Amino acid sequence: MSIEKAVEEIIRQAQERGEFDNLKGKGKPLDLTAYFETPEDVRMAYSVLQNAGMVSAEIELLQEITALKERLASTHDESMKRKVKKLISEKQLQFDLMMERQKKQRKG
Fold first, then answer.
1. All residues at 6 or more sequence positions from 82 whose CB lies less than 8 Å from its CB, including other chains
2. What is the pLDDT of residues 20-29, one digit of tens each?
3. What is the pLDDT of residues 71-93, one digit of tens each?
4. Cβ atoms within 10 A of the Cβ of 58, count?
5. Does 55 reside within a domain?
């Protein structure tokens, strides 16, 4: 049996057991905008760090932004929505500045 078929079988068995039924974001499209805005070499470094159990400040920010967007979607109070939108904007600006600094460091 090839490795691909073995992996497919493991995934199929997990699906049958319902292990994927309660995943966060189930049925929603993935938002990969931030991923593709991150330069490829930086993504590779993040991947290595993540596999080692470490998360960079940039990834933490992206996770915070995602959590805030989910909170915004489930909030009905208008004043809370404004506060959450402001937090999202601040975190996004912080992320953008980090990425811009990294871009300049690579050039210089």
1. none
2. 888 877 778 8
3. 999 999 999 999 999 999 999 99
4. 17
5. yes
